[in-house]
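Thread: Newbie trying to understand structure tokens

Hi all, I'm a second-year student working on a class project, and my supervisor (Dr. K.) asked me to get a predicted structure for one chain before our next meeting. I've only ever worked with sequences, so writing a 3D structure as a token string is new to me. If someone could post the tokens and maybe explain what I'm looking at, I'd be very grateful. Here's the chain:
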Amino acid sequence: MPTHRWLSFPGLVALALVVSAEGCAAGRAARAEDCTCPFAPPVGRAADGTGLSLLTAAERALPVAEIGGRIITLADFQKSIDDQAADLRARYADPDARKALLDQLVRFELLAMAAYRRGYATDPAVSRATKEALVRELLDGDLDPAADARAIPAAELAWYYEEHKAELRRPAEVRASVIVLADRDAAEAVRAEAEGADDAAWRALVDRSSIDPATRERGGDLGWFARPSEGGAVDPAVAEAAFALAEPGAVAPVVAAASGPCVVRLEERRPEVEPAFDEVRDAIALRLARERRARALEAYLVALEAKVDVRLHPENLAHAKVVLKAARPGLSSVDAHVGP
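---
Reply by user tm_fold:
Sure, no problem. This is what the structure looks like when written as tokens:
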């Protein structure tokens, strides 16, 4: 079966497949025998404080739509509201907005049914998307780093801050602009013209003289960067020249950069910053939570592997092909991929 038709609405059908595991759930048991396909509108776990948690059992089972034997319940509808961002939910106080949302759910169901009838449920791409969605739900539900972050003791956060101050600090940075020239003589001439130029004159000089399209389109701007020794990604020669300049607007001597002779101009600089504990407390908590989550996931996987017979066959990996480009008419298989 061709997969390009599925790819035209991946999120829609992937969601349908994820929720299909509910099958004909208890809220729809009375009509389960009439179901024409295993898809169901999205139904999820209720959390305290959601609209779903405020509905009675009888209210949750109320039908809001029937499509070919499928029932969309008030619980399904409420979950669709609860899943939206808090600042968007207020719109559903309007009856017209509720009707529009119900129309969307009905259309979703119609498309899901059509996809099932067309056989997309067995498409490998759909199966892969379903597995990915299920794994995300498992990890988010059972190994949520945000929940762990809230539980980390203040003393542990403070200890981490003291032990990792050097890692948490922001190094000194500069923002500089550059003009790349074809040869040193041209660079010297442009540098002489750049001395004392205001911002508008500098940008005009960049536009007229630079041979590097990427930086020329940005007025020569390289953005903010640190010294290469502290993680900066700019050419070391350019970075050294920029950091040697004292005042914004100053121009360095011609720099022999990897891209060619350059004229470097300092735009701004900002000093090294050591953040206060309160500024990075939440970031530290999330970092520690992620580390905990990684350890918990590793332990979880070890436990799963102990329950399942896992056998690897690495000797067969050599048969995999590494495709470098799409095959075209007349292109040999050797040109199209690398491998046996």
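A couple of things are worth pointing out once you decode it. The chain has two domains: 4-141, 171-270. Residues 1-48, 330-336 have pLDDT under 50 and may be disordered. Feel free to ask follow-ups in this thread.
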